[in-house]
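Example 9 (inverse folding). The structure is encoded as follows.
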């Protein structure tokens, strides 16, 4: 006997029934395949078996509820499709068979459990199941599947990015331990702090990887990167410590030579600066710091640490002194360029003045009072020691402009348009041009 819902559903044609049955069979096949693929997915297995916490646990619990409902709906959907397929295979073409198949394929024949409401929202006679159509079941399963795969895919992406980096950090830590054993000196609190930080980061990567996703869903590995730099710095200091223990004289010998070279470089710079100061008053020549005494004091401190067998401290100090020597050498190179730039600038301005003087002669204006006075002013600024390059640049610009203006000895016919070399650049007389 047909149910009320079944009786109220207009029967489909046999052609329509076969078309709808083929559609739900195809949907069942695809859903079965995708659910099996999801169940075996590495991200799904890792989430299912991990002791999760924090954001990842919250999102996985949410996804797991959707998985549970997805499988419940799938089982009910499969039973209905199997029922419809069996009924069609045995049906003799009667109207009752046609009505039954129409109901199975289009009516609310799929029974699924309702999600329990909070106790204060329940009624005594509330139903605990609902009936939906095959199309509604497919739509519900699709939505549940998307909720689950979003979390699984995000976790897999995070793990794929973070686990190799975590493995690299673990390898660095193992190397640090090996180097520490080789120099036979405990690392103390610094190493313990690094170990604790590595444990904390590792726990986050393994148990709460989704907490490291940014707003754009990209993986934020900045914390691991900072820890990597700290571990590499410790490894570098330990390598320096081992080198200090095994080849102290050779290593410090190179460092002493570098300090000697720096001292010689600074001595020549002092001579260069003295020449600049006697020739140029403005811009003022850069000052020259002298880091050599401090560096030599630190070299002596290295000898003390060696005598005490403090290899870690010695390795750290070696790295600091080496970096300080490199920085001081680079600084000396830049200061030499500044000083030489001032002399080069003065030579350039002198050459430009001679060029303008030759142009004034060609124009027949070299002896005009105004032009001659401007030339004398520029010449005085450039050939008086110490000279002011800023004032010289200003005087030279005024001299050039005077040649571009009509002169008292110039007729309209003889006036010339300034050539391509008439727009020489102006600056404040500094090194930068």
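The amino acid assigned to each position is listed next.
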């Amino acid at each position: 006997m047909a149910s009320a819902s079944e009786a109220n559903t207009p029967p489909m044609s046999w052609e329509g029934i076969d078309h709808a049955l083929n559609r739900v069979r195809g949907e069942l096949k695809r859903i079965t395949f995708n659910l099996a693929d999801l169940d075996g997915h590495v991200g799904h297995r890792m989430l299912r078996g991990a002791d999760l916490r924090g954001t990842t646990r919250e999102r996985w619990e949410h996804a797991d509820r959707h998985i549970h409902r997805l499988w419940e709906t799938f089982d009910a959907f499969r039973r209905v499709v199997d029922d419809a397929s069996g009924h069609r295979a045995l049906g003799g073409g009667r109207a009752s068979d046609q009505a039954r198949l129409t109901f199975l394929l289009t009516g609310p024949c799929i029974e699924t459990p309702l999600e329990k409401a909070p106790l204060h929202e329940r009624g005594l006679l509330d139903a605990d199941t609902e009936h939906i159509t095959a199309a509604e079941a497919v739509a519900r399963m699709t939505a549940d599947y998307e909720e689950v795969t979003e979390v699984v895919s995000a976790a897999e992406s995070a793990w794929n990015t973070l686990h190799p980096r975590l493995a690299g950090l673990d390898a660095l830590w193992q190397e640090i331990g090996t180097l520490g054993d080789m120099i036979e000196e405990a690392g103390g609190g610094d190493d313990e702090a690094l170990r604790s930080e590595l444990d904390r980061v590792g726990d986050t990567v393994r148990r709460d990887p989704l907490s490291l996703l940014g707003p754009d869903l990209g993986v934020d590995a900045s914390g691991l990167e900072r820890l990597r730099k700290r571990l590499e710095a410790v490894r570098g200091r330990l390598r320096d410590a081992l080198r200090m223990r095994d080849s102290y004289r050779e290593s410090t010998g190179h460092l002493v030579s570098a300090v000697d070279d720096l001292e010689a470089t600074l001595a020549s710079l002092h001579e260069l600066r003295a020449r600049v100061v006697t020739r140029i008053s403005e811009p003022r020549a850069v000052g020259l710091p002298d880091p050599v005494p401090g560096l030599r004091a630190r070299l002596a401190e290295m000898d003390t640490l060696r005598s005490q067998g403090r290899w870690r401290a010695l390795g750290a100090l070696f790295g600091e002194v080496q970096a300080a020597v490199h920085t001081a050498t680079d600084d000396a190179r830049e200061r030499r360029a500044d000083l030489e730039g001032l002399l080069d600038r003065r030579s350039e301005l002198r050459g430009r003045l001679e060029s303008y003087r030759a142009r004034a002669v060609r124009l027949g204006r070299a002896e005009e009072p105004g032009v001659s006075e401007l030339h004398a002013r520029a010449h005085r600024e450039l050939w008086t020691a110490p000279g002011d390059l800023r004032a010289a640049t200003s005087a030279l610009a005024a001299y050039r402009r005077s040649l571009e203006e009509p002169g008292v000895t110039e007729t309209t016919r003889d006036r010339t348009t300034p050539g391509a070399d008439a727009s020489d650049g102006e600056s404040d007389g500094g090194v930068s041009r």
